[in-house]
Design goal:
By secondary structure, the chain is mainly α. It has one domain. 51% of the residues lie in helices and 0% in strands. Helix 4 packs antiparallel against helix 5. The longest helix has 28 residues. Zinc ion (ZN) binds next to helix 5.
Length: 189
């Protein structure tokens, strides 16, 4: 797996690339959230005290990501009509998670992703990795801190050019104030 930083960055870049001049905070947040969602599979493991137990399971399959995208689009379409850009944004962002994890170095015992689940239990990983592996240590050791710091630098170096290129390619959109910045004088109801 990549770190959340890598997935968030790829989601942002994808949202900019797909949305172009229509980019908005809502679309960027949607892209970043959808690109990170598969790693919520840590939550049931945290509940049972073994965080990695369900990680890289069914949620890391193409079918699961397509179902998640259809659900997200269904909810989103209740708010405003769905466009082709919405479909591309949400579906691509969910699937980007699998691409990034597939390209990540995976030295663990349960290697690869079950991309074809539920049709097949076979696990897949790229023949050559592009993203260094995440290591886990509890309590944190000095080696773990050094490796994690290096990982953050490596992922920023990989993802930042993608985000900047996508922003330039989108025509350098000026994003309007986010929903958290209330217009002066406006009162909440
Ligand atoms: Zn993942």
């Amino acid at each position: 797996m990549s770190t959340p930083l890598g997935h968030l960055g790829v989601g942002l870049a994808w949202a900019l690339a797909v949305s172009g001049p229509t980019s908005s905070w809502r679309r960027l947040l949607l892209g970043a959230a959808a690109a990170s969602a598969a790693d919520l599979d840590f939550i049931p493991g945290l509940v049972v005290g073994a965080p990695a137990r369900f990680h890289h399971g069914a949620s890391h399959s193409i079918v699961a990501m397509l179902v998640a995208a259809a659900l997200a689009l269904g909810v989103s379409s209740r708010r405003s009509p769905m466009t082709a850009r919405d479909v591309a944004l949400v579906t691509g962002a969910f699937l980007s998670h699998l691409v990034l994890d597939w390209l990540t170095h995976d030295p663990g015992t349960r290697r690869g992703l079950p991309l074809l689940w539920p049709l097949s239990a076979q696990r897949f990983s790229a023949p050559l990795w592009a993203v260094p592996a995440v290591s886990r240590a509890w309590p944190p050791t000095l080696d773990w801190v050094a490796h994690s710091a290096w990982l953050v630098v490596a992922e920023v170096a990989l993802v930042a050019p993608l985000v900047v290129s996508a922003w330039i390619g989108a025509g350098r959109p000026e994003l309007p104030p986010g929903p958290w910045r209330r217009v002066k004088g406006e009162t909440s109801r």
